[in-house]
Design goal:
The model has no long low-confidence stretch (mean pLDDT 89). The protein has a domain of 39 residues. The chain is extended. 53% of the residues lie in helices and 0% in strands. The protein has three helices and no strands. With 68 residues, the chain is mainly α.
Length: 68
């Protein structure tokens, strides 16, 4: 990626987890040998968001009308 295409990450997002949630995340990261937690969180969150937005994209017809 060239410097012209690179966007700086200047915004922070913070959230809290309980002990069980934190333990589950840490076990996952350890199991799959993920060392860059920030990148993993960002990619996991954005993948979910983009998938949901794609599924919720408005269509001209309702699903049952398209199946006829």
């Amino acid at each position: 990626m060239t410097n012209e295409n690179r966007q700086l990450r200047t915004r922070n997002v913070a959230f809290k987890l309980n002990d069980n949630e934190y333990g589950a995340v840490m076990r996952y990261l350890d199991k799959y040998k993920i060392t860059n937690r920030s990148r993993w969180c960002r990619e996991t969150l954005l993948t979910h968001i983009l998938k949901t937005l794609e599924e919720d994209y408005p269509t001209l017809f309702k699903e049952n009308e398209m199946r006829r």
